[in-house]
Amino acid sequence: MEQAEIGLIGLGVMGANLSLNIAEKGNKIAVFNRTPEVTKKFYADAGELQGQIIPCETLEQFVASIRPPRPIIIMIKAGDPVDQQMELLKPYLSNGDIMIDAGNANFRDTMRRFDNLKDSGLTFIGMGVSGGEEGARHGPSIMVGGTEESWKRVEKVLTSISAKFHGEPCVAWLGENGAGHFVKTIHNGIEYADMQMIAEIYGILRDGLGMSASEIGEVFGRWNAGRLNSYLIEISEKVLKATDPISGKPMVDVIVDAAGQKGTGKWSVIEAQNMGVAATAIEAAVAGRVLSSQRTERLAAEKLFGLPKASKPQDGMAFLADLENALLAAKIGAYAQGFAVMAAASKEFNWNLPMPIIAKIWRDGCIIRSQFLDEITSAFTKDPDVPNLIVTPAFADMVKETDGALRRIVSYATMSGLPVPALASALSYFDAYRRGRGTANLIQAQRDFFGAHGFDRLDGVDKHHGPWGSGLATLA
Ligand code: 6PG
Predict the structure, then answer these.
(1) Residue 363 counted as domain residue
(2) What's the Cα-to-Cα distance from 458 to each of 431, 443, 466, rounded to whole Å?
(3) Mutation test residue for ligand 1: of 162, 188, 269, the one with most atoms within 8 Å of CB
């Protein structure tokens, strides 16, 4: 029997959809699930794709069905289960075989797994896959980290299954070891910020302007035809217009306002901090989810403090235009932060992350796909080493055009008691970034006062302590 080009372990929703996608694109695939009934059902339901699928009941049979060197995708719950699965698999593998973790792994685990296999003859790919169920089935965005040799072995299959933006595949090899999973983590951090900002705008429209869910859906629908065109705005319109079949109310009005999270947003923030990069909009988005989940406390606090009355803006049309521009301006801040974190990590881990290519493969297939990412691609293609997206000519023009709107919207929301942590963080980030003379001179003076930590002087004079009069920090 013809051997499979690739294997996949874990026929949950993502694994099953990815397998069908692989089979449909003309690649033979061997599949295995630890519960054989799941494999049998998957195969039985595969219809005309059955000819491309080799269902396996044992790991031995599974491994033997794949053409060496064998690429094996592991699509199971992130964390310990991946290590356990790898251990079970190892005895059947031989030189050159590639274990590929396609889950949302912490890139530090990926680096550990990659390093542990060094000198074993086996290798490891950490592969970020974005696009949810639908993406996995019909074309995800795929971020690959591993050796270049192992990438060459999987390039053809992954290219065939990836999303395509105007014919260009949304898959790329991004560097060694943890590069792919790191980039996927930052993708998710940006995703968190994007979603939080859209939710904050929704809050202004709902609680400030008193609009209904479907009216807000209409607004998002219009925006989706403009510069905010993106998958997240598109689905926001759809969910806002959906009706709950049980109560007959708008669906969003019956959903509890407490957001879940699985960890990638938090990892983005932790790594930004580790790398010494300000990612304030992403931080605000993660904190926003945390606060949202403290619903009982929030309800009690509302009883205690009440809510400020939101004023209705006088010119509704101008206000809506401001909201659209404010979202664009804030989004630029969040993406600039995400790319800055990746630039810092690239240096730290010697990955040489290709910024224009990352933007390119996010243009389709993934959750943050958008028109906007095509513009980021052009900006980074023109200037791949720019220190911050905000200062590229195209984005600088956009910021100059829209920051006034963001300022007015954040002011309005603040005066109305409507929380806009991500929008406000993006604005403050911009204000801090573009101010040549900041206020940290006072912080330096305080640090020197209580701890003799020293400071640099603007005039370059070689004196590094203030005249504070304490024994610790005399003028030196
Ligand atoms: C994607 C998504 C996907 C998943 C996240 C959601 O790119 O396809 O990001 O990976 O939806 O895990 O994460 P939270 O549960 O943390 O919101």
Answers:
(1) yes
(2) 21, 15, 14
(3) 188
